[in-house]
Amino acid sequence: MRPDSERDFAQYVANRKQALYRVAYHLLGDRDRADDAVQATLTVLYARWGRVHEIENLDGYVHTMVVRESLRDRRRWLAWVRLSPATPDVPVASADPEVEQRMLLRAALRKLPERQRTVLVLRFLCDLPVLEVAALLGLAEGTVKAHTNRGLEALRRQIGTNAEVAA
After folding, report:
1. CATH number of the structural domain spanning residue 3
2. Are residues 101 and 160 located together in one domain of the fold?
3. Are 123 and 133 in contact (CB under 8 A)?
């Protein structure tokens, strides 16, 4: 890789790493695994950096890479046999209601089926339109809309249930 090309790569990573991490974190729900997914994505991107000028939408390409790596990681994680019982998620009380709402949303997102969670993260966190989400995940547009609707309904039920319990 040429030195100026390395500088371009370093600048690209510096400008976009946080956004990639945020997507991976919301898909995986774990900081370390999200960091690993982003690192794996950037490692592959680094190896291909000499050819990126051929890619029309580099951000979309990298975004697709991190989503796919996150989904691969999630499938590997779910395939593991758990030898001990899972500890329940007990949210820590916060004085800031906004922090508490984010914690409730994250917990509710983790309980959604993988496909619904992925669609919601891409649609609302990444602000991608239905057509892009469909293309990214290889789904029909109507399927993305259905997953969006079901996921939002499930979140409303979860958060409504949690809000009633807390009151």
Report:
1. 1.10.1740
2. yes
3. yes
What is the predicted pLDDT for the residue at 114? 87
Q: What is the pLDDT of residues 10-49, one digit of tens each?
A: 999 999 999 999 999 988 888 999 999 999 999 999 999 9
Do residue 11 and residue 59 come from a single domain?
yes
Measured CA to CA in angstroms, residue 33 lies from 37, 72, 86 at distances of 6, 11, 18
- Domain of 162, in residue numbers: 94-167
Q: What is the DSSP string of the chain?
A: --HHHHHHHHHHHHHHHHHHHHHHHHHH--HHHHHHHHHHHHHHHHHHGGGGGG-S-HHHHHHHHHHHHHHHHHHHHHHSPP-SPPPP--PPP-S-HHHHHHHHHHHHHHHS-HHHHHHHIIIIIS---HHHHHHHHT--HHHHHHHHHHHHHHHHHHHHHHHHHH-
Mean pLDDT of the chain: 83
Task: Name 160's Cβ contacts closer than 8 Å, sequence gap at least 6.
Answer: none
